[in-house]
Structures are given as structure tokens and as C-alpha cells.
Give the backbone structure.
Amino acid sequence: MAAKWGRAAVAALAVAVTAVVGTAVLVTTAEAAADAGAQSSPALAGKPVQLALIEGMSGPFANAGAAVERNLRFGVEQVNARGGVRLADGAHPLELVVLDSKGSTDEALVQLRAAADRHIGYILQGNSSAVAAALLGAIGKQNSREPDNQEVFLNYSADDPALTNAGCSFWHFRFDAHAGMRMDALADVIQHDPSVRKVYLLNQDYSFGHDVSALARSALAAKRPDIAIVGDEFHPIGRVKDFAPYIAKIRASGADAVITGNWGNDLTLLVKAAREQGLDTKFYTFYGNSLGAPAALGEAGVKRVIAVADWHPNAGGAASDAWYKAFRAHYPAAQDDYPVLRMELLVEMLAAAMNKAGSAQPEAVAKALEGMKFDNGFHPSWMRADDHQMIQPLYVMEMDKAGTPGVRFDNEGSGYGFRTVLALPPERTVPATTCRMTRP
């Protein structure tokens, strides 16, 4: 990889940090690049440390699965370009193994068993909280039954708060903000938006969608009790081809705004239907900046689509810009322009934990991840030991045309991007937790 990119590119791509438990240890870009330059091919001759991505690579959310794979591969290649992970017996590359769950919980469990049979100790998944809960339960049983064949679950997107509250596990680490954290950030903006008087809640009919609905009701009651909730509806996940009937209901309700946690094609098709029917309401979304959504909305989304994320291309700063440009250079096709910073951070923090432990043994690495501090120069964060919830900045942003103030970069070549309307430092995003974790 170092030979492919050259030292200058490696320097631009190197992440400037890793950490030890309790104390941040910064690695400068120059140091990382020099270290990568010192590595030759034999240095990566160790057996690869495999990471199993269990995700829907086919079916209705295949595009979201492909975007996840790109982001994780980007992170893996950065680590390998710098010499891989340093274990007690030398340097080892990371290897991403993709296992197709077809978007099905049952198939995800089949693929988890396949990963265990191959003694892959790291399971990566996120595009469904229901799948995540099933995997986590099975991993707990696997680790009790076969302590010599343990697995750690690295979650990049499954946002059900229960996964780090009542359902928390030593074997699970969440690198995304959970739904309650995201909703609190959105509600901070709605609180100061007097144009919003009536809200329609529309969500996917599974655990996460129901969480979003309940959290929206609670947040609005606390911060804008004057707002009327004029609709609270759930639709089948991944099965609606035409959202026109839902748009008609929203219009009839007189809603000023829609709050939705929809993602993947369920979000793209929803906003497409809103555009086609000229629905004149605001959309407060969890993923309105994500794959395909800005292009689907087009001009109709300008100043009307609000999204919340842990990072976005216009978050600002030279280091952030450099990371974004490096991702785009790696995936130059416009349709591949969907960078998700936390997925690379997952890989970087995992590699840092392996380096700290001097081992790829899952339990040792999990202990090294607990409490880990991370700062890449533009995204300070830490993995809270109490519940294994990543604490990091959050941004609420508004869609607008590229080139308008605050929108230097567009999304996926669409001509539309997002400007920050609220930036919360990690200290402002810390949620309460009910986790009572049992450790091995």
C-alpha cells in the first residue's frame, strides 16, 4: 500500500493519533508517515488479523452495505500502509472479510457462525439494531461456550440506546452516537426554530424506528411542549417502493416538519417522494446527509433538510479537509463519495488497542479499548469504559447548494451539501447510562 500511494500520500492519509487506556498518546502525521516508509513488504509477512463484516451486501439495502465496505477498507488500508498492527511476534496486516447477511437477522446469525468456524475474533456490523441485538446475544453465548474462540462486536451504526444500556456487554463497542444522543442534538435546534409548530413522526417499523419515535416525543415534551405531534406512523422496513401515500398523509396533517430515523433506500425513496409531490415541510433526520439522499432531494431539500452526524465534510478545519480529500481521491467516482469518519476511527482504535495489548486476542484487545482516548487533530473522542459507548462531537447541519456560505463541499457530486448549524463538542454529548456491565 505504501508503494501504491507513495510517502506524500501516506503522510496525508496517516491518522495522527492513537491511545492508551486513560491517557491520550498523540502520533504526529510526520511520525506515522516515517514509520510507514520504514516498513517493507516482509514486515507484513505475519498472518493477517481478520475482521468479519457481516452486512447486507445484497437486497434492499445493498447500497448501504457497499458504502460501509468502502469506508472500512479505507481504514484497513491506512493501517496496513503504516505497517499493520504490532503484536508480540511482529507486524501483521488487517484483512476485511465480507460476509453477506442479505439484510436478514437469520442470515446474519448464519454468517456469525461461519466467522466463528474460521476463528475470526472481530465482528463488524451496524445497519440494523435488530440484527445487532441478535448478534450480540449470540456472541455472548459463543464466548461462554468456547472461551478459546472469542469474538468482539464492533458496532458502527446500530443506534438502539439499549445496546449500551440495559443490553450492554463487555464484548460490544459502539462507535456511533446512539439514537438518544442524536435526538437530543436535533431537539436543541428545533427548540430555537419557531416555524415548527406541528410535527409528523415517520419511522421504520422495527426497534430503532420505535426508539426514534419515543425519543422524539420525550425530547419535544422537554424542549418544545407547545409543538403538536400530528402523526406517529411506522412503515415496513425495506419493503415500501412508493412513499407517495405517506407524503399525502403528512400534507393532510398540516405538519411543519417531519422527524425520521429512516436510512438507506427507505430514506432516499421518502425524500424523493417529498420532492416529486412538492411537500413544503422541513425534514429533521438522522441520516438526511447520507447515501443518495441529497441527490434525491435536489433543490427541494435546500434549507429544508436537517441532519445530525458525528462528522460531515464541511465540519471545517485543515485536518478535516485533508481527510475528506484523501477519501475522495481514493474513491473518485461521485457515487462513492460517502465518507463516514467513525468507520475509519473504528479501525484505527482497534489497531491501537492491538498495539497496546501486543496481541490480537479478543479479550485482551477489548480491555485495551476500554477508556481509550482518541484525537486525530479534528475529532477528539473517547470510548467510555462504563458502557462502551463512543463519546464524540456531534453536528446538526442544514442542506444547501454547494458554494453557498458554509458549504464548500457537496455530497456525491450532487451539487448540494450541508452547513453546520450546531456543533457540539464531545463533552456536550455525554448521555446517562443504565449499563451494569459484567466483565470476564
User: Anything to note?
Assistant: The chain has two domains: 2-177+318-391, 180-309+393-428. Confidence is low (pLDDT under 50) at residues 1-42. The first strand starts at residue 18 and ends at 20. The chain is about 40% helix and 20% strand.
